[in-house]
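name: query_chain
kind: protein
chains: 1
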Amino acid sequence: MTINEIRTRIEALVDEGSGKTLKDAKSIKHIGIDPDKNMVIMIIAIAKTGGDEEKNLLRQIAKIVKVEMGFKGLKVQFEETKKLEGIGSNQKVKFIIVASGKGGVGKSTVACNLAYALARQNKKVGLIDADIYGSSVPRILEMEHEHPRANQEQKIIPFHAFGIELISTEFFAGEGKPVIWRGAMLNSMMNHFFFDVKWSKDLEYMIIDSPPGTGDIMLDLRNLAPTAEVLIVTTPHPSASDVATKAGLAYQQLKHNVVGVIENMSYYLNPANYNQEFIFGKGGGQLVAEKLGVELLTQIPINQPKHHLSLFEGDEETGKIYDELATIFTVRE
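structure:
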């Protein structure tokens, strides 16, 4: 049995509290399978939790999953629809997913610099560090480790750096500690980031630093931010560009709009003779763009910022490149 088969069966059920099918109400927030335990894990939003409506729906789901489909276990987390009012329900926010096929291509650095470039243009910007296993956003933004705080409504207060609101798994784990989670826990954390953080109501852009490759979070983002546009980051080297193409195709299959490709580490400008030296080869970004049928938006050189650890200011050549990249989105407002 596949997740799609489970979804097809479950989405026909009716939430008695709203009178709508789970499909019509877009109630199914997550479905996962734990193969080790032969268990199905779900997150479902319904009109009212804790009453007979929830109990009746749970019995119907259990009948389908355990009796008819043969799974040994079932775990369902019900959420009230009215409580799921977070950044994902803010129609004014433009979501931009920064993605890559593999790690080490500078995706997180691109995400942070794009967010910073938008902030320099006086835009209200949020940043979700969804690269849970390889979180580096706090380090890029030169932040000290501290644990999250909540307000009186028990909403998580986002952190702030360089005019950007942000949240990251790094703040929930011990300093320097690895995150070793299964898919269901990843989805739970993503839901917290979208629905349990007290994001400013006037946010205009939300940058999402997605984990490299394809996997659970890519599927979660399809549900959490269905209108998000995608930037694919690669280096010129074939080993990076090949898997970047696969990531881009996956986002297109999920009906996301892939805006274009960013070729990072394109060249090194030799200060001795001002020649461009192509350390990682040439043409990878253009190749990805052609295969995806999109534009190669920019080529970012290998460079060290003058003022910060990883962020470029507007008075630097690379900073100007990020300003131009940000303008691609702001001119479309």
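note: The chain has nine helices and 14 strands.
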